[in-house]
Amino acid sequence: MLRLRSPQQREIWEMVIPKDILALNEELAQIDRFLDDERFLLPYFKKHKTFKKLNTGRNSTPIETYLRMMYLKHR
User: Fold this and answer.
1) Is the pLDDT of residue 49 over 80?
2) Is residue 7 a contact partner of residue 64, using CB atoms and an 8 Å limit?
3) Domain range list for the chain
4) Measured between alpha carbons, how far is residue 19 from residues 5, 13, 23, 24, 60 in Å?
5) What is the pTM of this model?
6) Which entry of 10, 32, 33, 63 is 20 to 30 Å from 71 by CA?
7) What are the angstrom distances between the C-alpha of 30 and each of 27, 35, 36, 37, 64?
8) What is the dihedral of CA 62, 65, 32, 35, to 10 degrees?
């Protein structure tokens, strides 16, 4: 099953670690804003829509997570 975004789940570390340490640096904050745009997710949705994989099978890695990990890998 294709997932575009992962559900927002709070982590225990969010309550323990100060917010200024969890903040993204400027580069990652800018990339985060770019990747929040739906235009980056639509090509994946359109491709899998034709194969009827939207509601069947095992959950996929969310496309949003995949794109962010690929940015970190190739930066």
Assistant:
1) no
2) no
3) 13-74
4) 23, 10, 6, 10, 30
5) 0.63
6) 10
7) 5, 9, 10, 12, 15
8) -50
